[in-house]
Amino acid sequence: MFAGVDLDPLRFEGSLVRIRGWVDERDGPRIEVTHPEQIEVLATP
């Protein structure tokens, strides 16, 4: 799904983002992002 929208995760480096999803305890707290719609950029450097 991410390749179809040309989304590069490295472009978020240094940005403030909001990720929506379920918090999972596997390997520590995390959210698995499966859809681009889960990512919201709040501020960029």
Report on this structure:
This protein is mainly β. The chain has one domain (3-43). 0% of the residues lie in helices and 29% in strands. The chain has no helices and four strands. The protein has strands at residues 16-19, 23-24, 30-31, 39-43. The strands form two sheets. The chain has a two-stranded antiparallel sheet with strand order 1-4. It has a two-stranded antiparallel ribbon with strand order 2-3. 0% of the residues are buried. The model has no long low-confidence stretch (mean pLDDT 89).
List keywords for this structure.
45 residues, two-stranded antiparallel ribbon, two-stranded antiparallel sheet, 4 strands
Percent strand: 25-35%
Low-confidence region ranges: none
Shape: globular
Provide the gyration radius in Å: 11 Å
Number of domains: 1
Largest sheet: 2 strands, antiparallel
Instruction: Count helical runs.
Output: 0
By secondary-structure content and strand pairing, the structural class works out as: mainly beta
Tell me the span between the first and last alpha carbons: 26 Å
Q: What percent of the residues sit in helical stretches (DSSP H or I)?
A: under 10%
Helix-strand pattern: EEEE
